[in-house]
Fold:
Amino acid sequence: MKQLDATFAALADPVRRAILARLAQGDATVGELAKPFAISQPAISRHLRVLEAASLIRRERDGQHRRCRLEARGLERASEWLDFYRRFWSDSFDRLDKHLKRKTGASHD
Amino acid sequence: MKQLDATFAALADPVRRAILARLAQGDATVGELAKPFAISQPAISRHLRVLEAASLIRRERDGQHRRCRLEARGLERASEWLDFYRRFWSDSFDRLDKHLKRKTGASHD
DNA sequence: CATTGACATAACCATATCGTTATATAACAG
DNA sequence: CTGTTATATAACGATATGGTTATGTCAATG
Structure:
């Protein structure tokens, strides 16, 4: 799915993850988000564009500013996708692991 | 962290996610993994390289073949990262949101 | 209405990514 | 050894990504 592409790609950048971490503490304007970073404001602006396209944030005009908020949908999608694989690192993994190792010679086409 | 970069970037590609889905059903050789796709074998080979670098799979020689398995570490890392944000789409989101707006906590990146 | 402040967009450059085809390597079969 | 099979690596081109500086837009303000 294209949406998952966009979401995981958005999460792959440390600047964007830091922006999300900041927004987890509450809304912020673009300027506030840009301040901690050594990169230019247009660069931040494009990161926000990517995050918005991935449904990870939402932006809305607030007078002269633009207020950014976390948006659950993108995060939820990524999390749901990963949940399918949760059994591979859960406590029951070892049992499953050994089970699969025994069947290694069997038909797996 | 750099590891999360690699893991999320690896998950951003639909071919690689399909490979993981296939491996969730059991080990497979490179050839078996390549078969369902319309792309060349070298392309698959590089996708596997990316997945391995992201700790999402493990490859080991098996005579003439190379057997690929899911590896939990990468998946676990990604899932742990997302877990921090789980509250933002849980039912208690509104209360936590207001709470966080006053008291802010740990950094998460 | 002219200016300033906050943000977005455009144009550009360097590097990364994903595909290709051609070739190398490693193990097995004869 | 020779050939075949399974996989990796190399070299290349197209497109994507992430940064920059310059400029445009819109709201607030004197």
About this structure: Residues 41-53 of chain A form the longest helix (13 residues). The first strand of chain A starts at residue 28 and ends at 29.
